[in-house]
Design a protein that fits this description.
The complex is a heterodimer of chains A (447) and B (386). With 447 residues, chain A is α/β, with parallel strands linked by helices. Chain A has one domain. Chain A is built from 18 helices and 8 strands. In chain A, the strands form 2 sheets. Chain A has a 4-stranded parallel sheet, sandwiched between helices. In chain A, strands 6-5-7-8 form a 4-stranded parallel sheet, with helices on both faces. In chain A, helix 2 links the parallel strand 1 and strand 2. The radius of gyration of chain A is 21 Å and the shape is globular. Chain B is built from 15 helices and 8 strands. Chain B has a domain of 146 residues: Rossmann fold (3-Layer(aba) Sandwich). The two termini of chain B are 32 Å apart. In chain B, helix 6 links the parallel strand 3 and strand 4. At the A-B interface, helix 6, strand 4, helix 7, helix 13 and helix 14 of A face helix 4, helix 6, strand 4, helix 7 and helix 14 of B.
């Protein structure tokens, strides 16, 4: 095992990211004192553009929950929630959020508002529905459902889009009543236009990771950029931030700078990170100079690196398409296999790392099968480790480190014997020698 | 128990416990070329399958009768048993008589199962229905009709037979009859719980998962007749409602244990999809409209269907009071996230209404229940003697 290297890059974007997120918490505090209305939203395929049209500020319980975890403050609220009757097996994100509500804990110590509307954008995750139902109950706030049909066909159906557009317009009416503000259609289109620009910059950033060495880590560093991506996507601040981030990382790429003096392994990450041990987990990769060149977790809010952009000429329809088909949570499980496979091929990866998260069955249920697909069918080395994204009680540092070290040692050995292949070649070397069909090909044939 | 009831219940038990789907195989032999379609809990629009000339087969896991060889590795820790046993049945050939499988988005694990199924069992028709979670939208009915039409088209393609409206209306009528008989059976038990054993009506009901609905209707009529004739003396028992076992099913011995420990079960949510509607679905007019509109507006409450107009924790309290039950017994499958979430709000509401409750966790594959027996007995005693 090599020495642990400093893996973190600290540029202007990190300072700006911190400022933006603090400003968001300030706006939420202003909202609690009669400022702009706040509306709760879920991250997955969120429709933050709609809120911009009301000058409303999004309240993301997931961001609060992960902020608590990364600051090592999640256990107290989790225990408080368990006292209310939540089970050991309930999602710990929900428990941390509800526990924090009940105990009056906030991640930065600033006050959080009671939302004008708890808007459950049900994009893939069933747990969201329960979460928002409970959040509304414990805050005594109005609750609305935006039901997004799961992507069960290769492409969304016209009926799916029509159903969502109708609901979006119903929510617009409801928000007009609840906030006492008129829906500003021009501002809505402008927000959609900002989103398209942010998505373009974000997508180009993601594509920078196709270079060797990658100038940033598309899992750990991507997470740093994800806060502004959800909070500010539909605003000029978002555009400014992401265009700056693109410039900064592009310059770094042009200088040929990677994360380490020498990048040794390129991996694709599947699953959310263990936020309570974020640093520790990152260091385990740094010890092997292994970088993530792509990750599924960074596509929860939206999947743009394959080309989708919001469209200001069809704002409602493009919101619908985004929620239906262009985020990892609403795409079906085999489409996720295909997404990871594309990352291995097009982002030139050596291996896949699956982080099984106890809390999140959306991500985790069936990851054993996923591992089978990559190792047995495609011949791509795959590591599988288990912990949790929020609950510190489910992180076994020694066990994960052992598995990680054994895995990278094996990769190193494979490289020395010429049997470790990268990118498209990694898949061509499937045990049977044949190129395996994509997991979802059959699905397409059926339709 | 009258001998007639006993032999009927015994026949049902054999049907239910036959993991090789003997009834389905026999039906297919008797109907050469006809298809059978399995469906994962909780609800499926079985009328469409029936009207396409196919046999709908309800799957509720494999209980303790199947060792897991393959499914554990595919699904890993913290995932409920029914997801694994259903996949195991597929991987070990027990589901071979089925030509297709239907799933819906009841929870995140079941949803991923649909696609793991799809990959591991090539050649089967596997479909995933999105049943709307926002019944208050003006577009929900139209959307659901479209979803049923999509599924109907797939069935037509699979069976090579046109699905027409007359056939669908006839199927609705015959399933209305089935649901009415089940409501009668539940009504009989609620009125005379000393006379009707929950474990018996459970088996009568679950046998319907594997039988043509017409045969099941006859069986239920027979069962209702013989149960109504029974004579039994009331015992000192606590009147309860069972909540939480809508998907993975508790072992039969656990249901018996609950009764033997002194509970009269006035209502339960076992096999909930079989009794999904609160009344008849109109068997006239546009049949897809009827099915869709009833799903959205006349379904029973359930942990897997969200209707923010009618909150289920209020409905549980209302039902408990209406039936004159003294307590609620939560029977929750291990790792069942929807049931565990709902428990929190149910509990709050029950406590506000001063209704006692007990939570028991089970696994379909469990076979010893000493600890659970003690818990139920203690709970019953506390209610009887307080």
């Amino acid at each position: 095992m090599g020495e642990t290297q400093a893996s973190e890059y600290r540029g202007d974007i990190h300072r700006q990211q911190r400022d933006l997120m603090l400003r968001w918490y300030q706006r939420l505090e202003e909202s609690a004192h009669g400022g702009p209305p706040a509306v709760s939203l879920m991250i997955s395929g969120n429709c933050v553009e709609l809120l911009e049209a009301f000058g409303a500020v999004p309240l993301y319980p997931e961001v609060n929950a992960l902020q608590l975890a990364i600051r090592h403050q999640s256990l107290d609220p989790i225990l408080a929630a368990e006292e209310l009757g939540y089970a050991a097996d309930n999602c710990a994100y929900v428990k941390a959020d509800i526990g924090a509500l009940v105990k009056g804990i906030t991640p930065t110590g600033t006050e959080l508002p009671v939302p004008k509307l708890v808007l459950c954008n049900f994009v893939g995750c069933n747990t969201y529905v329960k979460w928002f139902e409970h959040a509304a109950e414990f805050q005594n706030a109005p609750l609305a459902m935006l039901d997004v049909p799961f992507l069960r066909t290769a492409e969304p159906r016209a009926e799916d889009v029509a159903y969502i557009v109708c609901q979006l317009k119903e929510i617009v009416k409801q928000l007009e009543e609840l906030t006492g503000r008129r829906f500003d259609y021009d501002r809505f289109r402008e927000a959609v236009r900002c989103s398209a620009r942010v998505e373009e910059a974000w997508s180009r950033i993601k594509h920078l990771a196709r270079r060797t060495p990658t100038p940033f880590d598309a899992y750990f560093d991507a997470i740093t950029l994800m806060g502004p991506l959800y909070v500010y996507r539909g605003s000029p601040e978002g555009v400014e931030f992401f265009e700056l981030a693109l410039r900064e990382l592009q310059e770094k790429a042009e200088r040929g700078e990677g994360i380490y003096d020498q990048e040794r392994f390129r991996v694709v990450m599947e699953g959310p990170p263990p936020y309570p041990f974020f640093r520790t987990f990152r260091d385990m990769f740094a010890a092997w100079k292994a970088t993530a060149v792509a990750s599924t977790y960074s596509t929860v809010g939206g999947l743009w690196e394959f080309g989708f952009r919001h469209d200001p000429d069809h704002p409602f329809e493009s919101l619908a398409m985004h929620m239906l088909a262009h985020n990892v949570t609403n795409r079906n499980y085999l489409q996720r296999y295909d997404q990871i496979r594309r990352y291995v091929e097009e982002w030139d990866a050596d291996a896949v790392v699956i982080h099984f998260v106890k809390s999140c069955r959306l991500f985790s249920a069936g990851q054993g099968d996923m591992r089978g697909y990559f190792t047995q069918q495609l011949g791509v080395p795959t590591l599988y480790v288990e912990s949790d994204l929020e609950d510190p009680r489910y992180f076994s540092e020694a066990q994960i480190r052992n598995r990680m070290d054994a895995f990278f040692e094996a990769l190193e050995h494979a490289r020395s014997t010429g049997t470790l292949h990268r990118g498209v070649a990694a898949i061509r070397h499937a045990p049977g020698g044949e190129i395996a069909p994509a997991a979802s090909d059959r699905l397409k044939i059926l339709q | 128990m009258p001998a007639a009831t006993e032999s009927l219940v015994e026949r049902c038990r054999e049907i239910v416990e036959d993991l090789s789907l003997g009834e389905v195989r026999r039906w297919k032999e008797a109907h050469p070329g006809a298809r059978a379609i399995g469906y994962f809990p909780v609800y499926a629009p079985v009328e469409l399958i029936h009207a396409a000339g196919m046999l709908p087969v309800g799957l509720n896991g494999a209980g303790d009768r199947l060792d897991l060889q393959y499914a554990d590795a595919r699904f890993g820790s913290f995932i409920c048993s029914i997801v694994k046993t259903t996949l195991e049945m597929g991987l070990t050939g027990l589901l071979d008589p089925l030509d297709g499988m239907l799933f819906s988005g009841i929870c995140d694990s079941a949803r991923n199962l649909a696609f793991v199924f799809e990959r591991n069992l090539p050649g089967k028709y596997v479909d995933f229905l999105h049943l709307p979670q926002n019944p208050s939208s003006a577009a929900s009915t139209e959307f659901l009709k479209g979803e049923y039409r999509r599924m109907g088209d797939a069935l037509e393609k699979l069976g090579g037979r046109k699905l027409d409206d007359d056939a669908l209306r006839a199927s609705i009528a015959v399933y209305n009859e089935n649901r009415k008989l089940l409501r009668d059976l539940y009504g009989l038990r609620a009125a005379s719980p000393h006379q009707v054993r929950t474990s018996d009506i459970y088996l009568l009901q679950r046998a319907g998962n594997f039988l043509p609905v017409e045969t099941h209707n006859e069986l239920l009529r027979e069962g209702l007749g013989s149960l109504a004739d029974g004579e039994a003396k009331p015992r000192d028992s606590v009147r309860i409602v069972i909540e939480g076992a809508f998907c993975e099913q508790p072992p039969l011995d656990l249901i018996r244990l609950i009764e033997d420990a002194g509970c009269y079960v006035l209502d339960d949510d076992f096999l909930l999809g079989r009794r999904w509607f609160t009344g008849d679905v109109p068997a006239y007019g546009d049949p897809l409209e009827s099915l869709a509109s009833c799903y959205l507006n006349h379904s029973v409450y359930s942990s897997v269907r969200h209707d923010f107009r009618n909150r289920r924790h209020k409905l549980l309290v209302e039902k408990t009071q209406r039936l004159g039950a003294q307590a609620v017994l939560f029977l929750i499958a291990k790792f069942c996230e929807p049931a565990y979430f709902d428990y929190v709000l149910f509990k709050r509401e029950l406590e506000a209404a001063a209704i006692p409750h007990l939570l028991l966790e089970f696994e379909e594959k469990a076979f010893t229940f000493d600890r659970l027996r003690t818990e139920v007995e203690t709970f019953v005693e506390s209610l009887l003697f307080d």
